[in-house]
Design a protein that fits this description.
Elements lengths: L1 H60 L1 H6 L1 H12 L12 H6 L4 H15 L1 H4 L2 E3 H11 L9 H12 L6 E5 L2 E5 L7 H9 L5 E3 H8 L3 H13 L4 E3 L6 E3 L8
Antiparallel strand pairs: 1-3, 2-3, 4-6, 5-6
């Protein structure tokens, strides 16, 4: 029995030693992995810093193009977004001083708000983004600084962060700018898509096209009338619900 215990002890020591060696190897591998990860992160940071320097050189060289050419400005924004830079977002910081257009979207946003509020009585708080672009271009003609649909969408995106009801919604092939503090749901979108061609709907037409109950159709339309987005016309038989934002009023 004693000899058996003595014979077993070396095997136990070997097992403990092997376990410790495995743990040491795992620790070495983990350390090596951390080192490789740090090296990769360092390389990525260097690449981003290099790219940012090149981007700054590019911005200096093409400063006027960025300020005046909306397509050039859009492509420049796309390049900047790759490294998390938003050069036209505010009037503070290196990029705004470099380009001289730090408050570009702030100014554009204010103009969008003013136009949307001034026309709300005629369009119910919904305006085709092409019409808005036309109105903005006329208003900004004296500045000699062209804008694009992309500029308008970026400005509205920043307005949306303020929670003031501004947004861009898609109706079929069109984009509409919403300036009323109303949450749009799938029912609202379905009605807009149905009314895209004629600019109006009737309850029977909604029930037939969308397979809705009368209660669902009347409740949704009544809500949109309450918000001023839809107008009621009762002159020709069935009550017609018009969406002035879908009309071409320009």
């Amino acid at each position: 029995l004693t000899s058996g215990l003595v014979a077993a002890m070396p095997r136990k020591n070997v097992g403990l030693r092997g376990l410790k060696e495995q743990q040491a190897k795992k620790a070495q591998l983990a350390a090596r992995g951390d080192q490789m990860e740090e090296t990769e992160i360092s390389k990525i940071k260097e690449q981003l810093a290099h790219f940012k320097t090149k981007l700054q050189d590019f911005a200096v060289k093409h400063k006027n193009d960025i300020k005046q050419n909306p397509l050039f400005r859009r492509d420049f924004q796309a390049m900047c977004s790759q490294i998390g830079v938003d050069p036209l977002a505010s009037n503070k910081g290196f990029w705004s001083q470099l380009l001289g257009v730090g408050d570009f979207y702030y100014t554009l946003g204010v103009q969008i708000v003013e136009i949307c509020l001034a026309t709300r009585d005629t369009n119910g708080g919904l305006m085709d983004i092409v019409e808005l672009h036309t109105r903005l271009s006329k208003r900004r003609a004296k500045t000699l600084q062209e804008i694009s649909i992309d500029d308008i969408e970026r400005a509205i995106k920043k307005l949306r962060q303020l929670g003031n009801g501004f947004d861009v919604i898609v109706v079929g092939s069109r984009k509409l700018v919403r300036s009323v503090p109303m949450e749009f749901n799938l029912d609202h979108s379905a009605l807009f898509n149905l009314a895209e061609e004629s600019s109006y709907v009737t309850v029977p037409a909604v029930m037939a096209a969308l397979k809705w109950t009368q209660e669902r159709a009347t409740t949704t339309l009544a809500n949109m009338v309450k918000e001023g987005i839809a107008w009621v016309d009762t002159q020709d038989g069935d009550t017609q619900y018009w969406f002035p934002g879908l009309l071409n009023l320009t």
